[in-house]
Specification:
Blueprint lengths: L2 H13 L5 H13 L22 E8 L2 E8 L2 H14 L2 E2 H6 L3 H5 L2 H4 L2 H23 L1
Antiparallel strand pairs: 1-2, 2-3
Helix pairs in contact: 1-3, 2-3, 3-7
Amino acid sequence: MNEVRQAQHELIEEFQFFDDWMDRYQYLIDLGKRLPEFPEADRTEDNRIKGCQSQVWFVAEKSDDRLDFHAISDAAIVSGLIALLLRVYSGKRAQEIIDTPPDFISALQLQQHLSPTRSNGLASMLNAIREFAGAAVAG
C-alpha cells in the first residue's frame, strides 16, 4: 500500500470511533487547533487559496522526491480540514499524490456533512495539492 493510501486508511479508521457528526466536527476543530504555526510572512495574496469562503493560506515545498505542505485558515473547521489534508499528503511523493484518488473524502462523508462553501474550499485545497504534485512530477 502506498503512503498516501495508508494515510487515508488510517484517517478513515480514526473517524469510525465517532458515533455522530457533532463528535466528528469537534475532532476536526481539535485537529485544526494543533496545526503548526504558519509564518505571518507567508500570509500573502499569492499564497491564498481562491474558492474558499474563509481565508486559507497554503505553501508547498519540494524536498527531494517528496512534497511538504503548510497551511492555515482563519476558520476552525476549515483548519481541521487542512489538518486532514496535510496528514494525507504532506511528506509524500508527488507521483503517489497524483496516482491515489482522494477516497477518504467520500469514505468520511465530508461532502454530505459540510456546507457547500466548505465543500468548495476543500475541493480548492485538494486541487492546489494535486496541481503542485503535477508540476513537481513534470519537473
